[in-house]
Amino acid sequence: MPLTSVEKDLDALTMTITADFPVPVRRLWDAYVDPRQIERFWGPPEWPATFTRHDVFEGGESHYYMTGPDGERAGGLWLFDAVDEGRSFTVRDGFAREDGTLNTDLPLTVMTFGFEETDGGSRLVTVATFPSLEALEQLVEMGMEEGTKAAMGQIDAVLDDLRSFAAELPVAAQLIGDTQVRVSRVIRGSVDQVWRAHHEPELMKQWLKGPDGWIMTVAEQAPEVGGRFRQEWTREDGSDGFGFEGELLESEPPHREVTTESMIGMPGDPARNELTLTPVEGGTLLTLVITYPSAEMRETVLATGMTDGMETSYARLEDVLV
What we know:
This protein has nine helices and 16 strands. The mean pLDDT is 92. The protein has helices spanning 25-33, 35-38, 133-141, 144-152, 155-160, 191-197, 201-207, 295-302, 306-321; strands at 3-9, 14-21, 49-54, 61-67, 73-84, 88-96, 109-118, 121-129, 172-176, 180-187, 214-220, 228-235, 242-252, 256-263, 271-280, 283-291. The strands form two sheets. It has an eight-stranded antiparallel beta sheet with strand order 1-2-8-7-6-5-4-3. An eight-stranded antiparallel beta sheet has the order 9-10-16-15-14-13-12-11, with helices on both faces. It has 322 residues and is of the alpha+beta class. The chain folds into two domains: 3-165, Alpha-D-Glucose-1,6-Bisphosphate, Chain A, domain 4 (2-Layer Sandwich); 172-321, START domain (Alpha-D-Glucose-1,6-Bisphosphate, Chain A, domain 4). A hairpin with a 3-residue loop joins strand 5 and strand 6. It starts with a strand and ends with a helix. The longest helix has 16 residues, at 306-321. This is SRPBCC domain-containing protein.
């Protein structure tokens, strides 16, 4: 177990947790910034976590919920105040209501995660600062210290599991919630490069083709938040064709973008796409959380081989970036 000490300072209103790991700082950092990894240890074993959003950049947010033995859920969120890549990040840590908004009835804690190199590997020093002595006592009474110890006991297994998160792996899709899927892949290239490849029309047409034998003919970008985008494809011989259109809801270059998406000419409510780009060892972790109007629609879309087409395009993107 990596946990080495837990110290409470009632005068400073802090709780400091120190843990040592036999891995490089980069490996430990990536475990915290990759939603696929952090959710495997953030919640205690009997309350596993699911991260529906994890944007590790200044001004970003993380949303998660922990599921209890009887199916009950407890939500949480982080608001990122500072991020020093590979060294530290500071968040305001709070509880969330069922709709994902901040529960202001419970205290908000400021937490700084500091990553340091040691002779044996790396050290993580987490300092939680509470707004008052009453808040500190309340959260400790709610099991914060015991929950942290239980969660920290799971990190070693995640750090050892390099195979599941290797940069050379193809697109992976994970069902989360009732109507969502999280698509993940590490792209060999910087965050700026991958962002640009998703927004420059002529560059998009070089790689965003889907299966072999198709070409992208239209790559119209939304000029600003609230604007519309449109993308169309045809076979190389000009036969058949399809396309998507939607609205740009949020844009925080080069880290996060949220859009709606509908197939052109198809009735029904649109899907919601949340794209996050995070620097990790080996390149950029691309995370796309798609929320469908229904579970049935999610299953229908995945059954089309969507991820196979995405993998073909992302492999082509790496060739373009290299």
